Backbone:
């Protein structure tokens, strides 16, 4: 029934649009994306965090998260490495987790 | 550990340049008052083809519609429509002459369609809400990681394009095809990373309301919303609405790629609701949307006149069907009155509603809106919870002051 209703609705919309809307016009589009709005605030290993994390995403992706416990941050860093294949070394991963636990975890 | 890919290094070089230059223009924006805080966000005015947007993330862009914009009507203006990308390698230039949509896999005839060839198929239009699976995630309690959306990770547009089914028929889907897999022009910023691909089973893909859209609200799509074409899957969450759609692959087995098998899964329970830490939950790919409603003409803390009627107005959506009823309460949900529904733009659209609410004596009051869809589903009193922060649809409550 819903499928039929959708078809009927589609035909009705088609009837109204045929008069109003011309065919699609495609023009070249070029945009420029703005620079990152946020940086990682000071904290232990902030340089390592900046060098690794900003390769794929801006700092606000991290800074906008709720305060998360160290184990959750460790899981997030592991996901970035294992799932999204971020080329982060074992040593850097540990330093990144330390930064996140020090700056963005519940007291 | 593999060496950083060329792409990753390029992206890193880009970000370093970005750091060295002036920070993006950002003005103070809303504070979403998320549980536990950290809900203040700036407004960004410097994203191309977009107006003032709540900046959730610069890169990959994650832009939320400021909630007051939803009061302007049932359709969300293109320049105010939310933006969400998974990977930062987004083409910043599209040549519509050389652009091709490929259809391949389990088909009789592979297609490589130019945009002008695509426009030869019958044109259809449909009004439909596009809502992020994780819209409103910031309100989850306990909080969960992910894009910390307020309620503005959604929008409604009148989409114009061609039926996916018609394109599939042109290619001739073989009898062994079970799913259609969609991908776009964005790429992982690490070459080994999983490309963003999503699938619909073949029956869903062939439903007539599923379209390949080349226009929204009568205009070309903004590039950040998927120019030149995107998939529109009315009634389902936007994870399936592939932007910059460039490739459709017909599969002879269910899709086991990361974005279908591991990401965007929900508990197979009513309203995708589980208890934190609950074990033994069967997970399934997220799919249909559920009813929601929002007050749009008043904000939290609004001051309303005592012992008089006040106009309350908002938007509702049925999910994957129409809106049957919207009720409004001024006592936190103890008593309800029916709102008057606005013009029906179709079952997948927002529906505007309005009512005149008699306010009581002065003091604090809690307004609420509740949608019932045409399948009889009602928004619940209690919020659902799952570890990914998906499918929130609890009755929204708005504290106001009556004076």
Residues:
């Amino acid at each position: 029934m819903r499928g039929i209703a959708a078809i009927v609705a589609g035909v009705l919309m088609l009837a109204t649009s045929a008069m109003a809307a011309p065919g699609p016009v495609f023009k070249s589009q070029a945009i420029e994306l703005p620079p990152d709005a946020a940086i990682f605030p000071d904290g232990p290993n902030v340089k390592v965090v900046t060098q690794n994390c900003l390769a794929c995403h801006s700092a606000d992706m991290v800074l906008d998260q709720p305060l998360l416990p160290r184990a959750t941050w460790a899981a997030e860093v592991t996901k970035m490495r294992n799932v999204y294949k971020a080329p982060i070394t074992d040593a850097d991963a540990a330093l990144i987790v330390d930064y996140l636990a020090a700056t963005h975890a519940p007291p | 550990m593999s060496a950083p890919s060329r792409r990753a290094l390029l992206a890193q070089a880009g970000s370093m340049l970005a750091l060295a230059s002036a920070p993006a223009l950002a003005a103070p924006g809303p504070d979403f008052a998320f549980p536990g805080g950290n809900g203040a966000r700036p407004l960004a005015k410097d994203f191309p083809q977009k107006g003032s947007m709540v900046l959730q993330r610069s890169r990959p862009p994650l832009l939320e519609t400021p909630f007051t914009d939803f009061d302007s009507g049932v359709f969300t203006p293109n320049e105010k429509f939310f933006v969400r990308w998974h990977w930062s390698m987004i083409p910043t230039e599209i040549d519509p002459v050389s652009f091709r949509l490929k259809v391949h896999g389990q088909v009789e005839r592979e297609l490589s369609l130019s945009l002008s060839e695509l426009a030869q198929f019958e044109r259809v239009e449909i009004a439909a809400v596009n809502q992020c699976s994780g819209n409103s995630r910031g309100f989850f309690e306990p909080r969960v990681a992910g894009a910390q959306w307020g309620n503005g990770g959604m929008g409604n547009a009148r989409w114009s394009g061609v039926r996916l089914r018609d394109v599939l028929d042109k290619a001739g889907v073989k009898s062994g095809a079970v799913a259609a897999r969609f991908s776009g022009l964005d790429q992982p910023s690490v070459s080994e990373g999983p490309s963003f691909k999503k699938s619909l089973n073949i029956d869903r893909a062939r439903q007539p309301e599923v379209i390949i859209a080349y226009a929204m609200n009568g205009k070309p799509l903004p590039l950040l919303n998927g120019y030149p074409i995107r998939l529109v899957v009315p009634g389902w969450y936007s994870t399936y609405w592939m932007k910059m759609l460039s490739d459709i692959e017909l599969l002879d087995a269910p899709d086991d790629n990361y974005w279908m098998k591991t990401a965007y899964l929900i508990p197979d329970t009513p309203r995708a609701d589980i208890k934190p830490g609950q074990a033994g939950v069967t997970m399934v790919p997220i799919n249909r949307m559920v009813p929601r409603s929002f007050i749009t003409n008043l904000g939290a803390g609004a001051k309303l006149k005592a012992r008089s009627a006040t106009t309350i107005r908002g938007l509702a959506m049925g999910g994957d069907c129409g809106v049957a009823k919207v009720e409004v309460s001024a006592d936190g949900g103890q008593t309800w009155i029916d709102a008057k529904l606005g013009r029906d733009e179709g079952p997948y659209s927002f529906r505007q509603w309005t009512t005149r609410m008699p306010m009581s004596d002065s003091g604090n009051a809690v307004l609420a809106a509740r949608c019932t869809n045409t399948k009889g589903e009602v928004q619940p009193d209690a919020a659902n919870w799952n570890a990914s922060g998906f499918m929130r649809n609890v009755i929204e409550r708005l504290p106001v002051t009556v004076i």
Remarks:
- Confidence is low (pLDDT under 50) at residues 1-22 of chain B.
- Chain B touches chain A through 84 residues (CB under 8 Å).
